[in-house]
Design brief:
Number of helices of chain C: 14
Number of helices of chain A: 12
CATH superfamily of the largest domain in chain C: MetI-like
Distance between the termini of chain C: 31 Å
Structural class of chain A: mainly alpha
CATH superfamily of chain A: MetI-like
Order of helices and strands of chain A: HEEHHHHHHHHHHH
Number of strands of chain C: 0
Shape of chain C: globular
Oligomer: heterotrimer
CATH class of the largest domain in chain C: Mainly Alpha
Helix content of chain A: over 70%
Radius of gyration of chain C: 25 Å
Helix content of chain C: 55-70%
Strand order of the largest sheet of chain A: 1-2
CATH architecture of the largest domain in chain C: Orthogonal Bundle
CATH topology of chain A: MetI-like fold
Number of strands of chain A: 2
Strand content of chain A: under 5%
Number of domains of chain C: 2
Largest sheet of chain C: none
CATH topology of the largest domain in chain C: MetI-like fold
Shape of chain A: globular
CATH class of chain A: Mainly Alpha
Strand content of chain C: under 5%
Number of domains of chain A: 1
CATH architecture of chain A: Orthogonal Bundle
Largest interface: A-C, 93 and 93 residues
Amino acid sequence: MATLQQREMRAGYLFILPAYIIYLAFLLLPMLAALGLSFAQMDRISWDIEWVGFENFEWILSDPRFWKTFRNTFYFISMAVIGNVGLGLLIALALDRAIPAPILYLLRLAYFLPVLVSLAFVSFIWKFLYSTDLGVINYFLRQVGLSNVPWLTSSSMAMFSVVIMDVWKNMGFFIIIFLAALQGVPRRLMEAASIDGAKGWTVLRRIKIPYIAPVILFCITYATIGGLQVFDSIKILTDGGPGDATRSVVMYMVSEAFNVGDLGTGAASAMILFLTIGIVVAVQFGLVRLLSFKGRQ
Amino acid sequence: MKHLLSTLTLIAGLTGSAAIAQVLSDETATIKITQWVADDVLAATEAAIERFAEKYPNVTIDASYVPVGAGSWGEYNNAVINEVAAGNAPDIVGAAIEGFEELGATGVLMNLEQIVATDEDAQAVMAGIEGNMLDGMRNKGTGELNFFPTQWNNIVMFYNKDMFDAAGVDYPASDWTWDDFLTTAQALTIKDGSGNTTQFGYFVPGFNFGIQPWFFTNSASILDEAWVEPTVTAPEYGESLQFLSDLINTHGVAPAYEPGVGTEKFTAGQVAMFSAGHWPVPSIRDAGMENVGVQHMPMNTVQTTVFGIGGLAITKDTQNAELAWAFLTELAGDEYQQGLADGGASIPSVRAYATTPEYVAWPDNSEIFYETAATALPVPSPSNFAQVQEISDRYLGTFLNGEVSLEDTISGMDRELQRAMARAQ
Amino acid sequence: MKPAVLPENASFSHRLQSAMRVIHWRNWVVVALLVLGAIIMVLPFLWTFSTSLRPISEAYRLPPSFLPDQLDFNSYAELRDGPIPFLGMYWNSFLVATVVTVSVIITSAMAAFAFSRLRFAGSNILFGSMLAGLMVPPALVLIPLFFGLASIGAIDTLWALILPALANPLAVLMMKQFMQSQPREYEESAFVDGASYWTIFWRISLPQMGPPIAALSIIVFTTSWNNFLLPLVFIRSFDAMTLPVGILSLFGSYGPEKLSVILAAVTLSIMPLLVVFLIAQRFIVESIASTGIKK
């Protein structure tokens, strides 16, 4: 007869079995395979593999285009995270007040709607809206007397345009998260503060923000990880162009692997991306530990 | 050995087969065919499947279509190669010339030479095709005939006759030059009171196939004739680029460069002229535009244009070589050619079908479509076409929007193309 | 500003007046700005919908319409009758999304049960390793997945879309966080009464998981429905294609000549997600509240 403890252990393993096996098969193992592949060259047709050591990494790290995509991706993140999390927070704070329920419902729907729709679809739509001479946005700009803005045809504007679409698309997600977090702030604290005569700003700074700080951090991390992997929207909006102005690391990776047919290089660039994500996340967590530690002092 | 056997069986089976429309075989099999997405391809394949089913009632045709998206043949080639890589190689592969070298180089396609030599009907089809185009079918590397010709397309200049009439401009002559073209485009560009352009003269082609004539008519090209050496450093190449850039940035007769063909801009009345092959004709007709004409592309040093030809290949590993060939000929035969002519999107490769009165009735001057076949040059299609196209698209994008200088563009293109072509050897 | 407490049978106008008194003028300004923002958010959708109702050749004409100025349903008819099996792809998307959602919820709930309620050696390490999966870009595993799926013959079938999507560390995380915040009394008393682990899980723990289940349903369903990269690389034939790549096929080989048809397809694709959201949106807010704050 198994002891209670043994029964519990066995149950534990059995319960995580389905999820873990799938995780092993479709995430962990492919990851390790990709790691291996990054040190090799593989022919797509014949499935022949040839070990080449660090050659793939050398090729990538010496390719100025790879560094350009790296810079592009970080440029994208810096704007997109601030836009998504920042605007999301602002709007959530704005929404967190006594608004008649039907209006609140509609507002939430309107801001969340873009989140629901496929990125591929909205990218098609925004591409038409953004067309420089024949697009919808510029049409209205011309009507009010302004001149055409080269949304997608100018290297300096293009990434900015991509970010605008990204924020439009994803802001709602963060709004909902922040709204929920704000609704969790105990009313007692708020009432106590208002009795003490605290105004809106102070309440905001001293109570609400610190209370939802962990959520803010979670959002920043989540947005960063997502931003580092951006692919769909840019692929459809600009296909990395003009030139390489908006090309992201993942686009470079897909292009190397599937266009050029160089799977090893593709895998190597993906590995570098993975390492980058790990470093960025670690840095963010480290910063948090540092800040909360100091806060406690 | 297996491949040799299947080829021999195929030839043996063909000698002495009569092409009568009755049930020819009771065999049960499935034939997989992969082609690209296009209305005419879909319609023609469906029709061919029906005809084929009468002769071979127990054979299932499993047809799949790959989305190509704005003429990106590089991606189509990739999709086919991925299919092969995944072990799902189709029996029949459709491709455009941009894929002949790339797909031929994989070594998975059969050499159709001997088969054609024994099939009279196939020979008749090929005899009806312009010799210049047939030369483009053979693989430059191996000399094999991997693809059997089906349809082709070129680039001509479409123009909106109503707009020409309104501006009092003569319709383009067949030997018009770049200068004539510029003057015409300027006359057709209309601005409103506040200086905004409401009508552009021309849409600079934002796709690889469409932009080639602008090099060819100046005796320039991105690669040499053998499709091995980059030739972008030739002064004529830069001259062409500069001319196109000036259209947009100096003369303002064309809108900002963006990827695409521009058909929708033409049908919406936003541009007076645009460059395309025969494929937009159905859309233009459906849009209700009647007064449309076509003309040869304007020339600078030589009158020519680009052509691309489509074909069907059979993979070596197919289990049903005979049936695959039978379906292929069904797909490329007379009824198919007629279907192409009726559909109007591609040009039938056999001259007879492309020169009937119905076919050349509209748009105005449609005789020139098949006329160009004798002098057109094939679109440069090396075995690493996907990569070359990507490099070209990138550099054109930043040059035509005025951001990078001509010298930098040329030197950058040359450097990357050299690297890519070397890698491909 | 405490809302005044009204008697039960207060008249409508009384309530309205009371509600309006609550809203300070500053709130009105904020609300107005929010509404303006909301309109901007929704404009692209209005354009999509109205343009899909234009005749096919008119779609590109400027000025654009945000409210339907014509009611030409040809584009929708073309979708139904056209050569591309749009309806079939609709069904594929639905099938894949449903199977994935149900499977993910069950497997992640089971795992969450184990991680939060049961003690077993190495549970922390196993959980941590799953979390690491959150950082893996799908693009990284794309290539090995392609060959792995190819070797089992799954490429170009719906399995290629279902199987990889079943690995969802976020789901496990959300479920575990929520479960941990729930009281254990019912489970413990059931255990004392001699119920098996499975019975406890199925009868007691799972029913309490309403909010995260609803939230995950939306997130997983929507992500699966909208997935573009996987079908693009793994699927070739129309039979197994899903909506996003299917719409790409509508572009034809030479560009978006039939804009209104494409937009009609997009409009139709949004509909199911809208329905799913409208039904379950309140659960999202509740559920994320419990996971977010705990962090």
